[in-house]
Amino acid sequence: MKDSVRFFRRKMLLYILLQFLKQGLLLLPPYCYLLFLNEIITERKFERLWLVIGLYVGAYMCKALVSVLEKVVYHRIYPPMQKALKEKMLEKYGNLDLEVIQGYTAGELKERLHKDTENVVLYQKGKLDIGISMIHIIIITGILLYLNWILAAVSFLLLPLSFLMTRYVKNRSNVEYGKKRELQGIYNDFMIHTMYFWKEMKANHLEEVQQKQFENHWNGMGNAFLKAHMCWFLNRTFLAFKDVFLTKMGLYLFGGILAVYNMGTVPVLLSFMEYYNDFTNRLLEVSDIVMKRGEQEQSLKRVEAILQLPCPERTYKIEHFERLEMRDIDFCYAEGDEHILLHFGLEIRKGESIALTGESGCGKSTLIKLMAGCLTPNHGSILWNGHPMEQVDRKEIYRAAGFLMQETCLFNLTIRENLLMGRGDACEADMVKACNKANIMEFIQGLPKGLDTLIGENGIRLSGGQRQRLLIARLLLKDPELIIFDEATSGLDYQNESEILDLLLQNLGDRTFLMVTHRGTSVARCSRVITMQHHC
Q1: Half-sphere exposure for 459 (CA within 13 Å, toward CB)
Q2: Beta strand 387-388 pairing with 379-384
Q3: What is d(CA 136, CA 27) in angstroms, rounded to the nearest whole number?
Q4: pLDDT means over runs of 10, the chain (536 residues)
Q5: Which SS3 state, helix, strand or coil, does residue 480 take?
């Protein structure tokens, strides 16, 4: 986070300057009010009316302009700062060992990436806002003492009670926000699982069970959210009643008494109350920021906990794919379970086209996930260009290799945006070429919005075959040197599969192709066939 703050330092200085200017302009209207009461009403110097009006209008217009500039600078600092922090978190996720990531649920990781990063940025902004508000409060305190030190002293008597109340309620609020945050992570994980497997749940008539679980999660979060906000409400109500109502009414009464005994004047009292109103508003703002800091501090700790996790050193780079070796690989999903792979070895060299076949359950998909780093072998080594996989930069592996797993991964975005996930700088001609190779361009052209058609969560608005062809198009757009299909054409009919494989293999060049398949027609197109068996 410190790096992000340093990067935005110049814009922050401008933001601070605008904030000070805005706070300074807020001091002018009460002063204009004092001039109006003294000069125009009391002393009847009507020739100065236009001066007072000019000051009012000028202060208002300057404040409006500064507010607009402040918003512009704000949006150039904090949203990009959050984006930079999210990217840093995502990069950290990608570099951490699989065992570390598996220690968190998907919902928890999502909360840290979205809500916690937002809270961290708000925490940084809150520190700045508190500093500026405190300086503003000190200046107003000086003005109040200057106007009438007796009234000022009376108004400050109850301030310690306000800070004690805020501190007490903040501690109670932190407990409830902590409960809500924990429940939010569990709820997110539940929703991710529900959205991903909704078809299976519907097929097994589990809607009522899911509905009850949803209600339990929602009620738990709702109760924690309500309790946390009740703490804020009670604190705000107490401060508003004490500072805005009781104290203000008392000051009017006491100020009137001082005016009667010639220890003050009515114009000074009225302008004093204008400044006091600004004073209490600043105090309420600081109180709100302090109330939220408990939740934000917890988010800061969670984000820092992720960023401070040690990453394994991966120093080797892959400029071009040459070979992939798997030596004496053993793998089972849990200790004591039967081995899926046992003493397995494989070598894939540049330019080969390989078909991987075998009975269901013999470990073909597991093998692909091991190659991709989604799983870690219990024993043995995986070498990329002769270097152990754990020492190779993962980004280099994913740049050189393209994996198409059985589990589809499409987003609730347009076809164009999903394609750009494969290569962000691709032009429309590149996308059309990749879609033609995947035999899906004709379908896309038949859609009313073409490439700009939304496809729904995980491509739910597409058929199974269309999803697979779109995934193949995205992979081909990336144009990796090693292409790995894990039954990526199983949902296609014979003609579609034949056309895609023929086009792919005819233009393979020095690229390498590995596909997991059960179809003999696909096997016949490859230069080498590897048949896996149980306990191979």
Answers
A1: 19
A2: antiparallel
A3: 9
A4: 59 87 86 82 81 86 90 88 88 78 78 88 89 90 89 78 66 71 76 68 74 83 77 70 71 81 84 85 81 82 88 80 91 78 90 86 85 86 90 85 80 89 89 89 91 85 85 89 81 74 77 83 81 71
A5: coil
Cα-Cα-Cα-Cα dihedral of 422, 427, 429, 430, to 10°? Answer: -30
- What amino acid occupies position 330? D
SS3 404: strand
Write down the pLDDT at residue 7: 57
Strands 323-331 and 341-349 come out as antiparallel
* Distance in angstroms (rounded) separating the CA atoms of residues 91 and 167: 37
| CA–CA distance, 318 with 393 (Å, rounded to integer) | 8
3-state DSSP call for residue 516?
strand
pTM for this structure? 0.66
Contact 418, 455 (CB under 8 A): yes
Measured over the CA atoms of residue 135, residue 138, residue 143 and residue 144, the dihedral's sign is: positive
Helix (H), strand (E), coil (C) string for 10-68:
HHHHHHHHHHHHHHHHHCHHHHHHHHHHHHHHHCCCHHHHHHHHHHHHHHHHHHHHHHH
Residue closest to 324 by CA, chosen among 276, 373, 269: 373
Q: List the end-to-end C-alpha distance of the chain, in Å, as a whole number.
A: 48
What pLDDT does residue 199 have?
Answer: 63
Q: Extract the tokens encoding 384.
A: 């990329």
